[in-house]
Amino acid sequence: MRVIDGRSVGDAVATDSGAYAPFPLRDQPERWSLVRRTVETTAGTVVVHHRPGPDPVLLLHGVAGSWTTWTPLLDAAHGFAGRGVVLLDLPGWGASSTPAEPLTVDGAAEVVTVVLDALGVGRVDVVGHSMGAFVALHLAVVLPGRVRSLSLVSPTTTATVRAARHPWRALGHLPAYTLLRGGLLVTGRAALPLLRGLAAVGLLRLLAAPVFTHVRRLDRSVLDAFVRELRPREFTAAARSAARYDTERWRGVRCPLVAVLGRDDVFARPADLDELRAAMPQARTVLLDDCGHFAHVEHPAEVAALLAP
Questions:
Q1: pLDDT score at 266
Q2: Helix/strand/coil (H, E, C) string of the chain?
Q3: Across-strand partners of 9?
Q4: pLDDT of 213
Q5: Relative orientation angle of helices 232-243 and 158-165, to the nearest 10 degrees
Q6: What pLDDT score does 205 carry?
Q7: How much is the pLDDT for 229?
Q8: What's the pLDDT tens digit per position in 30-40?
Q9: For residues 139 and 152, what is the distance between their CA atoms, to the nearest angstrom?
Q10: Regarding beta strands 44-51 and 35-41, do their DSSP bridges make them parallel or antiparallel, or are they unpaired?
Q11: What is the per-residue pLDDT across 133-171, written as a single tens digit (0 to 9) for each?
């Protein structure tokens, strides 16, 4: 047990800094025998990459993400060989269509359910990153019979909820999240062209630096995706949805759970891990050294080894 930020965390894992972010992001579904499909939902057309098989794993991306964000983990986990895999771009993200109204947590859970039904997939081991971890937890709340286990990667949970509710107070403990949200609200529709313009003049690594521990060691594909996949409207909508969420509902989650957080994560705090264990005593919590907000990109082998069974 280690004490960090005045609180204890379950495990602290030292990582091999020489293997930092070893894989690029790949838009090559055939590499893992994935088939691209589309599923019609009430939130629009959802793009899914799927491979049938036993003991399926469902991977839910976070903000500034899509299905390709998971490809370093697929490389590290040997494509989850012998198992079924479901990766979807949530509505408004990746290649999926943008809904008329931004997606709520409940709306995301409904979309995931429709996709699984369309694919004929029953119970799943759910792996969620950031916002996707939030959706994964909610799935376990509202559809406990569908979720076999939860693996939360760089999850945005209790600290993010508080920051969304009280942004000025959050400047002290989650300044990067608060400033990003404020900046997107102020710039509105101009935010994305502004970000892409800054990237075009060589400031891409500067933009991404707060999110990754070693931004200069990232493959260009990771940086390009970070800017390409950031959607201001969906980001601010996710923050509003989080602000309204009752995290006490997580106390009803009974399935096996692992939460993996980077020590340098600017969107979450190590103290979040204590709060998750208090709500769900069965949870195993792990703090990764030398890691920011994209643990499955920065240290995919360690994350693959820690996933819930």
A1: 87
A2: CEEECCEEECEEECCCHHHCCCCCCCCCHHHHCCEEEEEEECCEEEEEEEECCCCCEEEECCCCCCHHHHHHHHHHCHHHCCCCEEEECCCCCCCCCCCCCCCCHHHHHHHHHHHHHHHCCCCEEEEEECHHHHHHHHHHHHCCCCEEEEEEECCCCHHHHHHHHCHHHHCCCCHHHHHHHHHHHHHHHHHHHHHHHHHHHHHHHHHHCCCCCCHHHCCHHHHHHHHHHCCHHHHHHHHHHHHCCCHHHHHHCCCCEEEEEECCCCCCCCHHHHHHHHHCCCEEEEEECCCCCCHHHHCHHHHHHHCCC
A3: 2
A4: 94
A5: 100
A6: 67
A7: 80
A8: 999 999 999 99
A9: 12
A10: antiparallel
A11: 999 999 999 999 999 999 999 999 998 888 877 766 655
What's the rounded Cα separation, in Å, for the pair 149 and 170? Answer: 31
- pLDDT of the residue at 209: 72
Q: Which amino acid belongs to residue 40?
A: E
**Sign for the pseudo-dihedral over CA of 290, 225, 125, 134:** positive
Q: Count Cβ neighbours within 10 Å for each residue of 157-184 and write b for 16 or more, e otherwise.
A: bbbbbbbbeebeebeeebeebbebbeeb
Q: How many residues does the chain have?
A: 309
Which residue's structure tokens are 């990237």?
A: 199
Residues of the chain with pLDDT under 50: 1-9, 179, 181-182, 184-187, 201
